[in-house]
Design brief:
The protein is an alpha+beta fold and about 350 residues long. It contains nine helices and 18 strands.
Length: about 350
């Protein structure tokens, strides 16, 4: 019952599925089948024609999908991704956006997360919050981030646009959205300097996820990782990145705020990224979705993409506090939180 309600919110509110739409719902062999079927049923009830595609589970995320899935993506009006191995930022996904009217990536979402993160949240108010934090960041010149785990990082925004990445599909560039509870963008690459200390989650690789006993500290110079330190998890990350033999895997490609009131710092990176008061930093492939001002072009390509999560981040915009140790303190955000009814 709760899963069905969440699927209806996804299909009708987030994606805006219309009567007559061809809706592609795809996953892999590790997905929760009930989530795929509930979403298909919601699309059918909306008057659309749903098709479920299940592929093998790939060893790595952000790799090009099997050709039959790529073909199906390119011929769908609406595409909904649940695969445990994301194909976001791939050339197949980028090409499909020329045809898709709405696209969402919900990587590795099971029925529990579907109900909590889509069904039980005030989605419109969460989108309002996300749009406001994006607006505040876009207007700023500089961002500073610290955290109890050792983060001390600064960057200049330089007029680049931050966006509510988890808005409804109709409000997003190219009609592409993600799970609600996240806003982000890119900073001027050469101005990104300091230390990032990940203590919430890193994925890929699968061997780390939320199993971070010792914070993984990255020394950043001009947007590029120069040093990785920490415990055994840092050793795993170091080997993982070296295996690609691709210098672009060491480049910061986005910063994103987390503000979903029901998200937990779990092994699922899409949920961990949205933990209240967290900061997510992405590395590697900088696809067109991350640089909308480039008109569909890549900022740069890379062999893959990975993300790290900093919990209880403190963030300043032009010296004004936005959040302190994971709690939002900017007056405009505090007002929305009050109206939203989020209890902290």
């Amino acid at each position: 019952m709760e899963l069905d309600a969440a699927a209806r919110t996804l299909v009708n509110y987030v994606m805006g599925v219309r009567k007559g739409d061809d809706v592609l719902i795809y996953g892999d062999t590790r997905n929760d089948e009930a989530v795929l079927k509930a979403t298909a049923a919601a699309a059918y009830s909306a008057g659309a024609t749903p098709t479920i595609v299940v592929t093998e589970t790939r060893q790595r995320s952000f790799a090009e999908p099997p050709k039959p899935l790529a073909a199906a993506l390119a011929d769908a009006d609406v595409a909904i991704e649940f695969s445990t191995k994301a194909i976001l930022y791939t050339h197949a996904q980028t090409n499909a956006l020329k045809r898709n009217r709405a696209y969402i990536t919900l990587t590795d979402i099971d029925r529990d997360a579907m109900v909590r993160l889509i069904g039980w949240v005030n989605y419109p108010k969460m989108v309002e919050f996300g749009e406001k934090i994006a607006e505040l960041t876009t207007k700023a010149r500089e961002i500073k981030v610290t955290s109890p785990s050792g983060t001390d990082f600064t960057a200049k925004i330089g007029g680049r646009r931050f966006e509510c990445q988890g808005s409804t599909a109709d409000k997003r560039p190219h009609n592409v959205t993600t799970l609600g509870g996240q806003s982000g963008g890119t900073c001027l690459e050469e101005t990104q300097n300091g230390v990032l200390a990940f203590d919430g989650n890193i994925w890929p690789p699968d061997e780390i996820r939320s199993n971070i006993r010792t914070p993984i500290r990255l020394k950043i110079e001009k947007g590029i990782i120069k040093e990785i330190s920490g415990g055994v998890e840092a050793d795993i990350l170091r080997v993982f990145l070296a295996d690609f033999k691709d210098p672009n895997m060491y480049r910061i490609c986005h910063l994103s705020y987390g503000y979903h009131p029901l998200a937990r710092s779990t092994g699922s990176i899409p949920e961990a990224e949205r933990t209240w008061g967290a900061l997510n930093v992405g590395f590697g492939k900088q696809g067109p979705l991350l640089r909308p001002e480039l008109g569909g072009k890549y900022g740069w390509d890379a062999k893959s993409h990975w993300d790290g999560v900093i919990l209880k981040a403190s963030i300043w915009l032009d010296g004004e506090p936005l959040q302190k140790e994971g709690e939002f303190v900017h007056p405009e955000l505090v007002q929305i939180v009050k109206e939203w009814g989020v209890e902290r």
